[in-house]
Amino acid sequence: MTRSHDKGVEAIQRAAPLFERVARETRLLECLQWPRKVEEDFFASGCSELPRPVYEVDRDRARAHAVDCDQLAMTLDVADPIQRWLTQVARSYADGNRLLLAVGEKRFSQLSRDIYGGPTSPFDADTTNLDLANHLDKRLEGEKPPVHADHPRTILEAEAFAHAIKKRSERIGLDIDVIIDDDLSAKVLAGSTRVRVRAGATFRKLEVEGLFVHEVETHALTAQNGAAQPILKFLKSGGPRSTRTQEGLAVFSEFYAHALPIDRMRRIVQRVRLIAAAEEGADFLELFRLLREAGSTERDAYFDAQRICRGGLVEGGAPFTKDASYLAGFTEVFNFLQVAVRGGAQGAVEILACGRIALDDVAVLLELRRRGILGPPKYTPRWIDHWEGLLPFFAFASFLEEIDLDGVRARHEKVLEATECLD
Predict the structure, then answer these.
(1) Domain count, the chain
(2) Residue 312 forms part of a structural domain
(3) What pLDDT, in 10s, does the model give residues 308-349?
(4) Is residue 173 part of a domain?
(5) Strand, coil or helix: what is 188?
(6) Residue 24 contacts by C-beta under 8 Å, 6 or more apart in sequence?
(7) Domain assignment of residue 100, yes or no
């Protein structure tokens, strides 16, 4: 082991206790949740008054966490890859606590944009998150869910949904408690060991698989794997910088499991556009009405508008931009997996399951894995377990990208026209 790596390992030993404590005590998304009373008051007003959420934040603790992480970062040597990674992790935990200190203020949105990106943030040389959202929206235009999608036999009550999630968790060995919560404001709220389901909520059967692979087989799985690490237990929570990759993995899991239907993809796309509208000044009521005009139910419109406004200003101009990262994250994860799988880099892909990490961490974590500092993942998602099925999938996907669909459409024009006549 070189002297540089000695210093890197020493830095890990010094940083790990602080990171574990900050990760355990920083509950950003939980702090941003609106109580159900806010929802009840909104609907009692006839959906005509702005919600008035109140956030409970331990400001002294958040301030201390941000200072401690910043001070640690300043002691690290960024010329060493391991210490450079620890610096990025420290800054991320500090960022999460700075967000907590700014809830309910305009600067919350500015910090959010710096951390997660926003609609106009580029994710490659010449494409923004909003460009991608608009492209997908155009491709999905006119597409409708199957007519049987809302048939009573396809709908599950909250109890049946919770039972289905619990059973799926047991099949892959994850220890997850699934409970019905009378006070939950969202339909589902998932943590590392517990999934809460809103009492009285209903779910389409397809949502079971989609929510399971997204919330449990991705987010809970990576959190539990991080917590099970012998040294790097702080990987239970990667801080805000890991969000883009984690959400990208979760959406990829939905896509690969054929559990990403039209309406789900449309909602992901729509949220990017809603953030853009909020940045331009749209308030909660305007977002709610835009969603209703687009066909959302009242409850779904409330949930999605809430996601955009939580932590920021319900009066508009300062949204929470986290949801702008999903499409970019999905694209980045998909492209990484294409290269890694076709290159036979199974070890690199498994790193993605070792904890909540960012794609940029894979190289340094591979080195830590080689040195025995990072342990193998305790659990792996089924799509990684089925490694031999990934190569044909990505090999064929890369081939399909080269096909001229205009020529294919011209060949089958009569079939398409005949189908339109049936509508």
Answers:
(1) 1
(2) yes
(3) 999 999 999 999 999 999 999 999 999 999 999 988 899 999
(4) no
(5) strand
(6) 237
(7) yes
